[in-house]
Write a structure and sequence with these properties.
15 strands; Rossmann fold; about 325 residues; Quinone Oxidoreductase, Chain A, domain 1; 2 domains; seven-stranded mixed β-sheet; single chain; six-stranded parallel β-sheet; about 25% helix; alpha/beta; globular
Length: about 325
């Protein structure tokens, strides 16, 4: 069968926020899958802050996307034609399908669609949920009674990390980019408090929300937000670095945090986190999160943009402008 794939190609490395001059929307015919391969159709494309890093040539945890190549991205896809004995037509998989509506591959995680919705498999039961689970519990190591601060608290990972901290008996304070998001974080997600980092009184508001200081900082933003949090960290506090989205559109060296000497004076532990280190344990996180959701103790927020693959650039702009509540997914096609 002849299939034409609509796709986004990285045409140049962005100097700031990605723009239409950096990515080209094009089409290309796909060959029939070879033995061991399959043809897949993208149903949902995940939009993630790390995709901006992969557009650059800065030091990162995976090779950067090469100029002239299909833009990298995780997707939930459905097998159309399979010549791989491990997959059948109709199977749903989670894989690095990229920013394209059809693609040829040979590997992916086959999904049990009897458990959760397709959106769940791209959020709570997928990489997003596992990131929140392992980054908080293993890098942050929260203890009952401690104060945990979560930046980007209304976002995909932060919204789940804060709820997990509450389940562990912590006082949880969120940081978000609008008063509306702060209300959502407290009223819908159950955080104890949330402060708006865009407020001129942000530092004072955070100090008031954390009268006993901060024991664990679940960091998604970096930059000025981390600069504000660092002086409030308690002795032997832990900073779990999940993301640094405020710096991803910067070119050249990224400056370190202010008051970095406090990491010595207060004997802080700072640990970077990447979900790739936990691939063998993904089911552990999915089982725990699924159980908590079934008990009504955790809520999953998904922000679906229904626009097809042509809308991918606009969709990632929504993410970087903070226009989302929870996980951002682009709906590319209807599942068969």
């Amino acid at each position: 069968m002849t299939v034409t794939s609509k796709r986004w190609i990285l045409s140049q490395r962005p100097a700031s926020a990605p723009s239409p001059s950096d990515l080209e929307f094009t089409e290309a015919g796909l060959p029939d899958p070879k033995p061991g391969e399959f043809l897949a159709r993208t149903v949902y494309l995940s939009l993630d802050p790390a995709q901006r890093i992969s557009m650059s040539d800065r030091t990162q945890y995976a090779p950067p996307v090469e100029v002239g190549s299909v833009m990298r991205g995780f997707s939930l896809s459905q097998i159309v034609v399979s010549r791989n004995p491990n997959f059948s037509a109709g199977d749903f998989i989670r894989a690095a399908g990229g920013w394209q509506d059809y693609w040829i591959g040979s590997d992916g995680v086959k999904l049990d669609t009897r458990i959760g919705s397709l959106e769940d498999h791209m959020s709570l039961l997928g990489i997003t949920g596992a990131t929140a689970y392992f980054c908080l519990l293993e890098a942050g190591q929260p203890k009952a009674g401690e104060t945990v601060v979560v930046s980007s608290a209304a976002g995909a990972v932060g919204s789940l990390a804060g709820q997990i901290a509450k389940l562990k008996g912590c006082r949880v304070v969120g940081i978000a980019g609008s008063n509306e998001k702060c209300l959502h974080v407290v009223n819908a997600l159950g955080f104890d408090a949330c402060v708006n980092y865009k407020s001129p009184t942000f530092s004072a508001d955070l100090t008031e929300a954390c009268p006993g200081g901060i024991d664990v900082n679940f960091e998604n933003v970096g930059g000025a937000v981390l600069d504000t949090v660092l002086p409030m960290m308690n002795l032997h506090g832990r900073i779990a670095i999940c993301g640094l989205i405020s710096t991803y559109n910067e070119e050249g060296p990224v400056r370190g945090p202010l008051n970095f000497d406090l990491t010595l004076m207060r004997r802080l532990v700072i640990r970077g986190f990447l979900i790739g280190d936990y691939w063998p344990r993904m089911n552990e996180a999915a089982q725990a999160l699924s159980s908590w959701r079934a008990d009504g103790r955790i809520h999953n927020s998904v922000h679906v943009i229904d626009g097809g693959i042509s809308y991918a650039l606009e969709a990632i702009t929504v993410l970087f402008q903070g226009g989302n509540f929870g996980k951002v997914l682009l709906k590319v096609s209807e599942p068969a």
